[in-house]
Amino acid sequence: MVEDLRKLETDAKAELSQAADAGILQELRIKYLGRKGLFASLAARMGEVPASEKPEAGRELNRVKRVLEDVFKEKEASFLGAVSAAKAIDTTMPGTFFEPGRVHPLTRVILDITRIFERLGFSVVDGPEVETEHTNFEALNIPLHHPSRDSFDTFYLENGKLLRSQTSTVQIRVMEKARPPLKIIAPGKVFRPDATDATHSFMFHQIEGLMVDEGVRFSDLKGVLLAFAKEFFGAKTKLRFRPHFFPFTEPSAEIDIYSEKRGWLEILGAGMVHPNVLRGVKIDPEKYTGFAFGMGVERIAMLKYGVEDIRLFFENDIRFLKQF
Ligand code: DAH
Fold this sequence. Notes:
By secondary structure, the protein is an alpha+beta fold. 43% of the residues lie in helices and 20% in strands.
């Protein structure tokens, strides 16, 4: 009996070491450890073992059972390990594809516009989105009672500060620190309490421009804006200057761009920096003059790419963003 058990052990181990997959392992388990397997039939013969040999045969029976269970478990684990290792480096699986990232269309337009102005000698500056009433209004010649303040009025914070309603604030920040000659361009977000629709958003982007020096004339403004428009929209581009009112410039104009498809469309406001603004930042308006302009980035992006609804820029729909 003891010898038969040991033979069973050696046979089982030998066969098991040859088992190449989980299917074969399962067959061997049935063959050796199944209810009608080889081990069970040996165990059934315990009754025939003479009483004197019984203790040893019983010990051996238990030992072989434990050993067999262990080696089966081990073999099974080795298959599981092999399967997961194979999974990790399965070169027949399709690879993970990372979509190349891209720049948001508004960022694209801001970069393209600022690059053109950089080539014209303007430096790009940044200003805060949280501003003071002084910088957003008073310093720009918009006193508290002034009616034009209504259309610019904006979101106020509890500390009396506000979200800037125009990038013209950056003109003030630059002129409070630096002296002419100044040539800057300032892109950024602005905020207004406008109801959202196809052409309005409570948050949008502007690019502000400012040039202050001795002898800067309105014709310089025209020359710079025309150079920009031809570079950005194409050599055949035409601009139209319409007289307008802005508190911080005098004279002021709204500027339209012509396209075959849409006719004239307003793209920016501009003018000669108001003497009150220059005086406020202690620049002598008798000595220095300047021009300023502010354009709406979404407007320009919509015109350039034929986008019909401003909300598309902010909804983060990948199908839209992918096209740029
Ligand atoms: N800040 C004006 C707006 O938000 C745009 C503007 C007009 C800016 C004339 C200027 C300017 O610098 O000179 O509507």
